[in-house]
Design brief:
single chain, 189 residues, alpha+beta, Alpha-Beta Plaits, six-stranded antiparallel β-sheet, globular
């Protein structure tokens, strides 16, 4: 099923080299690949250096956010993102593990998927459970978006007024609610 042309926010990250080079080069190459696949990249944040999470779990990350415009379904978009990750040797062995490339669909317009109850369940999941469990379906907006400086800092670079469809807060307001230390560790390259 084809949806109307919509704006999608994608968080990008990586902390291991790929065949394209260091993480920053991998992100640049992945963005180019998304464009080659017919996804229109409307906005691109600056690239940011971010400490690895959890602390000590590996090399530090390079993160960014892009805004895409597409008329394909969310499921098809997610499939493309996973395919591009695999093209850059992303291996999904460990939740929150090191990776060459991470492409997360964090929001699509004001869509809440699959439904509000499922979204709230995953949003309220305790941290210990988050490290062991991953949803089997796409949850939008990303249930941890409001907690992650490495997403919110670059998101505010391109869409500070984007409104979270469940929380009713702008990206700028969510960023301001984070501890200052968590924001300060996300540094532009």
């Amino acid at each position: 099923m084809t949806e109307f042309r919509s704006k999608s926010l994608i968080a990008l990250g990586g902390n291991l080299p790929s065949a394209a080079g260091a993480p920053q080069s991998t992100l640049v190459s992945a963005i180019a690949e998304l464009s080659r696949r017919g996804l229109y990249v409307q906005l691109l944040s600056r690239f940011f250096h971010t400490p690895c999470f959890p602390a000590g779990a590996g090399p530090d990350y390079v993160n960014a956010v892009i805004q895409l415009s597409t008329d394909i379904s969310s499921a098809d978009l997610l499939a493309i993102l996973h395919d591009v990750e695999a093209q850059f040797a992303r291996v999904r062995e460990q939740r929150w593990g090191m990776r060459t490339l991470d492409l997360d669909l964090i929001a699509r317009e004001d869509q809440v998927s699959p439904d509000l109850a499922t979204y709230r369940h995953w949003q309220a999941l305790p941290l210990a459970a988050q490290t062991r469990r991953a949803p089997e379906q796409l949850i939008l907006p990303h249930p941890r978006l409001q907690d992650r400086g490495f997403v919110l800092v670059p998101l505010c670079d391109i869409a500070p007024d984007w409104q979270h469809p469940v929380l009713g807060l702008s990206a700028r307001e969510m960023l301001a609610a984070l501890p200052k230390a968590a924001v300060a560790e996300v540094q532009p390259l």
